[in-house]
Amino acid sequence: MSFTGLIVAAGSGLRAGPGGPKTLRAVAGRPVLRWSAEALLAAGARELVVAVSDETRDAAEAALAGLGAWRTVLGGATRALSVQAGLAAIDAPDDEPVLIHDAARPFLEARHVAELLSALESADGAVPALPVADTLKRARDERVEATVPRDGLFRAQTPQAFRVAQIRSAYAAWAGPDEPTDDAAVVERAGGRIALTAGDPRLMKLTYPEDFAMAELLAGAARIVRVGQGIDAHRFGPGDRLWLCGVEIAHDQGLVGHSDADAGLHALTDALLGAVGDGDIGQHFPPSDPQWRGASSDRFLRHAAERIAGRGGRILAVDVTLVCERPRIGPHRDAMRARIAEILDLPLDRISVKATTTEGMGFTGRGEGLLAQAVATVETPA
Ligand code: CTP
Ligand code: MG
């Protein structure tokens, strides 16, 4: 179902202490706002409207750079005003769902969104909520006045789902003088019915400085390790040098290929693309395209690394095996590892280059061609 995402990021984050506006601070290398925006887009948001403050607009736009459809609008002095500024800027049919989300809750997932949209079908609003687990005390001056029954009490989180026209008119009807503490409260006061979906500790709001340490832990858990493999073979032909793993080697034969025929880098490029399910080298650099004739294969490898980085991924380690009787690889192994480390911008100990023969058997054994095989491990967002 098509929906708009409204992210409020116009607060000043006073309780989060020093370190810059909390929604722009990095968690696992990405600004908190970007986590939220990426998640809503990945969950199918048609467009994002992001309420920002005057001071943070530029930094917020930089944090959103490269994502899909988003716009920023100027928020207000309170969260409710920021929400209303965002609602006014949404261009959507009256009955289209809008998901209103605190930028400061970076770990929402597509399943949260799916549950909210489905609950909204039979309600005027849907809210993820967690039952209160701790005992509740009412206290003044650090003295308990009462123990409050927690039966039936829930903690409301975001995103919260509504229909655009309905949440707009509920806000218009809000008489005050108090401030709503969430958007569902506004619809409730207007007489609307709010459904609860399963809340999630991962939807925690980053409020205090110590919440950022917890966020780093959760961010780590939100990543998975994937493995890709690649194979390439090239035929030996006339020549006096060949390229292998980015290193030029003098030899009494060359390797035949459309590009520089560096089977090692080609296998490695395929392994990296394979680890993120991003096709293969032939798809990205068709051999039929004359611009890749004689191309230096470090370009292919760098391209694969950029594709991984573009998805928020990180290469952990790569392992290349070259299969040939000749040339001897041993004397060049360190140069090959160093060159791959340089192209991928990785420490040397993350790079392995190995070699073996096939004891005279098969096409490599007969010296007809050279085979390269590679495995890459890559960490990506889950
Ligand atoms: N928010 C907003 N406009 C405001 C106030 C808050 O868009 N005038 C946003 C915040 O950026 C945040 C969300 O509403 O994403 C939840 O608010 P809160 O956690 O209270 O954030 P801040 O108001 O920024 O923090 P603090 O109250 O500690 O100053
Ligand atoms: Mg606040």
UniProtKB/TrEMBL annotation:
Gene from which the chain derives:
ispDF
What are the site positions for Positions MEP for the nucleophilic attack? R150, K205
Q: In which pathway does it act?
A: Isoprenoid biosynthesis; isopentenyl diphosphate biosynthesis via DXP pathway; isopentenyl diphosphate from 1-deoxy-D-xylulose 5-phosphate: step 4/6; Isoprenoid biosynthesis; isopentenyl diphosphate biosynthesis via DXP pathway; isopentenyl diphosphate from 1-deoxy-D-xylulose 5-phosphate: step 2/6
Q: Which residues bind a divalent metal cation?
A: D232, H234, H266
Spell out the PANTHER family in the cross-references: 2-C-METHYL-D-ERYTHRITOL 2,4-CYCLODIPHOSPHATE SYNTHASE, CHLOROPLASTIC
Question: What family does this chain come from, according to its entry?
Answer: In the C-terminal section; belongs to the IspF family.
* Region: 2-C-methyl-D-erythritol 2,4-cyclodiphosphate synthase, residue numbers: 226-382
HAMAP family recorded for this chain?
IspD (MF_00108), IspDF (MF_01520), IspF (MF_00107)
Q: Does the keyword Metal-binding apply?
A: yes
Protein name per UniProt: Bifunctional enzyme IspD/IspF
Q: Where is this region: 2-C-methyl-D-erythritol 4-phosphate cytidylyltransferase?
A: 1-225
EC number(s) from the headed UniProt entry: 2.7.7.60, 4.6.1.12
Q: Which GO terms describe its molecular function?
A: 2-C-methyl-D-erythritol 2,4-cyclodiphosphate synthase activity; 2-C-methyl-D-erythritol 4-phosphate cytidylyltransferase activity
The protein's role, per its UniProt record? Bifunctional enzyme that catalyzes the formation of 4-diphosphocytidyl-2-C-methyl-D-erythritol from CTP and 2-C-methyl-D-erythritol 4-phosphate (MEP) (IspD), and catalyzes the conversion of 4-diphosphocytidyl-2-C-methyl-D-erythritol 2-phosphate (CDP-ME2P) to 2-C-methyl-D-erythritol 2,4-cyclodiphosphate (ME-CPP) with a corresponding release of cytidine 5-monophosphate (CMP) (IspF).
Which SUPFAM superfamilies does this one have?
IpsF-like, Nucleotide-diphospho-sugar transferases
The UniProt keywords, alphabetically, are:
Isoprene biosynthesis, Lyase, Metal-binding, Multifunctional enzyme, Nucleotidyltransferase, Transferase
Name what cofactor the protein needs: a divalent metal cation
The record's Pfam families line, in alphabetical order, gives: IspD, YgbB
Catalyzes what? 4-CDP-2-C-methyl-D-erythritol 2-phosphate = 2-C-methyl-D-erythritol 2,4-cyclic diphosphate + CMP; 2-C-methyl-D-erythritol 4-phosphate + CTP + H(+) = 4-CDP-2-C-methyl-D-erythritol + diphosphate
The UniProt record lists the 2-C-methyl-D-erythritol 2,4-cyclodiphosphate synthase domain at: 225-378
Positions contributing to 4-CDP-2-C-methyl-D-erythritol 2-phosphate binding = D232, A233, H234, H258, S259, D280, I281, G282, T356, T357, T358, E359, F363, R366
Could you say which residues are annotated as the site Transition state stabilizer? R15, K22, H258, T357
Native source organism of the sequence: Phenylobacterium terrae
